[in-house]
## 1
Amino acid sequence: MTTHVISRFFESIIVVFLVSVIIFSIMHVAPGDPVEILLGQHDVTPERMEAIRDKWGLNKPLVIQYGIWVSNALRGDFGTSVAYGVPVSGLILQRIPNTVVLNLFAIVLTVTIAIPVGVISAIKQYSIIDYVGSTAAVLGMSMPNFWVAVMLLIVFSLWLKWLPTFGISSWRSFILPSISIALMNAAVVSRFTRSKFLEEVHKDYVNTARSKGVSERTVIYKHVFRNAASSIVTLVGYRIAYILSGTIVVEIVFAWPGLGRLLINAIFSRDYSVVQGITFISAIIIVIGNFLTDISYGIIDPRIRYE
Amino acid sequence: MILKRFIKHKLALVGAVVLLGFLTTAIFQAQIAPYNPLGFDPALQGQGPSWKHPFGLDQIGRDVLSRVIYGTRVDLKVGFLATGIALVIGTVLGLLGGYYGGRIDIVIMRFIDSLMAIPMLLFTMLVVATIGSNINYLLIAIGVPLSALFARATRAEVLTIKTNTYILSAVAIGCRDKRILIHYVLRNAFPPIIVLATFTVAQAILLEASLGFLGLGVQPPEPSWGSILGEGRAYMLSYPHIAAFGGLVISLCVFALNFVGDGLRDALDPHLRGRF
């Protein structure tokens, strides 16, 4: 187990390194002077331009430029935002809590909808519940989350006036955005839960338990659930990447003061360092999430032994 | 046999018919669209659905239905071509990594892991922010991150195929690697790849829609499903029908693709059930 944790840790470090290479190269694959990309269309004095060139070593060979960029980035320095004139890391830190809280709401919602639906449709396979659940899942996977967000906003905030429209005013502001983000994820997770359960239900140990006279409740919740749980937890863990992706667009619909909106504003004001910073930080969050998921997989499921 | 099983899957058949409808629309857009997608009538701006304009008119008085019809070609193009790019890159990487194993495999897998660590939408946004949202760049920006999915699926498939005796015998009689990879490994790995491709087309269309909604997709005035939503974004509360119909069409197309994927999966290999 310890060796597994250590080797997964080193793998994660390598992945972070490769991600940094990818993000760095995108800027340099693009035609044009990197200084111009960094500055966008913002006018600055020639001295300031020289300072930027100096700071990022843009006159030096690419490898050294990369070294400078990545060592700054790992220390949390993504440069200065040209639009706001303050350090990028400060801007990101300021917005991160709003996005994280929204994501947590969405994850909790995803799990509380998806797992019961998946379990029930598997236990009562080919029943009405199964049919409705499965169709709803495909529907949920097909609707763009921002469109769901717009429709919810129109119906519940504009027409019915039950819920607030934009920004964060109270806990009620979280309802619509988290539903919009959770829907597609719940669809994926419930389908997966259903198929995992069906796979387990037909295994021999379930028949053995039943023939021993174990009650159906115990069979499902104690035997099947525990065996299916590890892969479901893994899936939910890996969904973090998708959830983060989904947040960006949904945040725009609800004018949510989070990372998504910061990112879009940065793209339109050609504030490149902010875009780079957010991308890198999200990737790091995902790598950490995947790492924790992999480790917990081994803890939840004692059958898994690593050599 | 495969066709028979596919037809038995009723929802998949419905999906295939809907998809065929979208393809026809894309090909005969000029004949089908009732109005010019770029022509506008300021007097009618933002008017809701009516018999003359079933999807209503947008914020500057263009017929939303005609714009959606013209957008079909752009979106199917993005969906299929981006998937094509992803399929080629991903399958080659997966084949090489899975078949040869060892160092090549480790390098390829870490590269795939790092592609998957960047949220897809963020990756495409970063590319578009750097080099602009020309449709060719868009295809690459969507295709490259999606290739990670193909690489993983192909690799997993190759790892099981590799252990079969027919591969061992091919090696034993001295077949060249290229022949083994293409004729024996790839052929057998193909069904799940095709199924994945169907789902990926849906994902690519959703990505285009998200980008377009954010104003980063295919640039106006040329309509794409995403840009119709994006241009209507500022007016979504005053003219909800623009967003409503635009999104409905996207959902219908993705819905159809997902069902076709389900049906293909069951038809090509019933064992694959529940793997995607």
## 2
Amino acid sequence: MKLESPYLPKALPLIVENMRKSGNPLGMSGAKLSSWANGLDLPSKGETLLYTSCDYQLIPYMLTLVDQIKRMGPFGYGGSALASAAMGLRRLGLDVTATFAALTAKDEGYYNSIVRMYAEVLRKYGVDFAYLGEEEPYSGALLYEFGFAEEFAEHAKKVSRLFKERNVRTVIVTSPHALEAFRLLYPKFVEGFDVNALHFTEALLKAKQKIPMALKEPLDVTLHDPCHLARTLNITEEPREILSQVRNLSLKEVPYANKRWTGCCGAPIETLLPSLAEPVAAKRVEELASSGAGTALTLCAFCLANLRKGASGKALKVMDFVEVLHQALEAK
Amino acid sequence: MSEIIGKAYRENYEGLMGALRNERIMIALERARAAYRQNLSKTLAKYPHTIALADEVRKIKEHSVDNWEGLLKEAMDNVVENKGQAYFARTADEARRIVGEIVGSKKVLVKAKSMTCEEIDLRQHLQELGNEVWETDLGELIVQLRGEGPMHILSPAVHVPKEDVAVLFSKVMGKEVPPDIALEVAAAREFLRQRYVEADVGISGANIVSADTGSLFVIENEGNARLVTGLPPVHIAVVGIEKLVATLAESFKVAEVTWRYAQYAVPSYLNVISGPSKTGDIEKTTTYGAHGPKEMHVVFMDNGRSEMAKDPVLRQALYCLRCGGCMYECPVFALVGGKFGYKYFIGYGAAWTAHVASLARAAPVAYTCLRCGRCVERCPVKIDTGSIIAHMRGLLVEGYDRFGEPKL
């Protein structure tokens, strides 16, 4: 079995085994991951989907997992006691209920509220969309990221089949990693994959309805371009164009390190090397603060989580892009 | 879990954490990064043709890597025709043995900076044979005297502030050297001057080799490489086969892009060396060893490169010009410098590490890379680290080892 490869960091199998068992990196249930939509009455069928890739929903659990991994030592290579604890965890599989028992509901509420805002903003823009709810699959991006190309291909085929069964033509994607998967990887790994994947900002700009947006109080923001959104997908102007439509909001760019030259938030190594991910985040927070804005916006769940961690105790406030839009639509 | 691989991960981790604790590294690298970006944007504005030239250089490198065997034969023939001696080393061991046999023992050697020599620990090997070896690049000398490895491919001592240099030089040179950069540079000059004169052998690498003329290109600013390759009676160059290009004209293109992305409008010196020193001034009789070396030896080395060339994804890493620009853009490098890597640095370096060292050493590097892609934005030949890392991780997942049992 590939997870037995002696070259892999020990922390990795936890995540990959969960992917295998439940289709998402943390082995979470669909009901839990779709609970953010309770009460929104989103249709479950339609040619256009809002696709969350479960990123925001997984974040609070991911943070708890990182604490677990930290206890396992660097890369999951700790002393012998830690290593055997890790082996024990693996043999048992990751007990989600026990592992995540310590989770505070506050974090879960925050990240779920972000996804809800994405849906509500799309609605206000008059975009018709459905949501697969409990059945929404994870994109598999992490499998590819960690080197499991074959498993990624299998997963992608399943997702693609589901989309086909449901007659999905277009997905509006909030996750840069999922968007990269659909645009650049699925076509390589799944024959005939032809679902049109739009980023949330692209979908807003395409919407027929244009709504005036304004904030109650003037706000200076800077934009943290997520690496994959900016460099791999070349989506840098779209979010800026949308922000330019918000009255009372002014965008201050980070000197040099913006758009295609944006700096990483550290999240990609958060699960394997948290002690290095943290200073990477702290450096990026410093850079964002050097824009002179008091608030940094981002458009990726992982950036959001890691930058919020990096900004804790600092003056800079880190928010999701959609939080400001949501406010600006409410205020009007 | 193999103990060997565990050791590679642990040592890598300890290196990373040690560097994180040393705040000086971060401060020095931040200054270096700011200066690099400013200098590069200035020099690219002055020489805007560089960007298109870099695209051309990418094609030159692709073509050269495709045809390395033919180019190697041609280059070796031409070195010999120019009265130099040419060797081909398949492995690091072979390269060390060849150089060791030419040098012998109880010699004084001066050495110019070379990642290829660093790759095979050539200095240590020659010292073990009973020779005295002096690094002459200022940064490399500092690193040698500190008993460390380089922190950056072009600025090996980028992490050492002038105060530390002063203490180090005072101790080694047996006289008070104040923490004043100009005085430190002067002290190093005085200290090394005698070594050049005494040296039996000069050792260098090369940035480029043009196969059609058998010429070595060595780009530098300090002037140490011209002394190393010009003053002692014997010059030995150790060159990776990825440095071969077809023609002299192509070599100049590669050279210009290399120094430009190393933030120089033009370097102080471009040494083009095509054979030992010679004169025919007395009776038109060609005599070797006029003012420069009487002997020139060129050791072409494979050491895993031809394997890398066979891999459709990892071969990109062979296009690297070693301009060092990517390192200033890497967020991990910004914190830990050369501790992010083994022999070669940052994400794409994992492909190099896997081939010139081992898969075990490459594993933690591959899983440390953020795959954020800013290095790719900077790279003049657009080496795609994202695909290299995904591919490397794929190899690690397969547990596939082209090099047999796990080793360090």
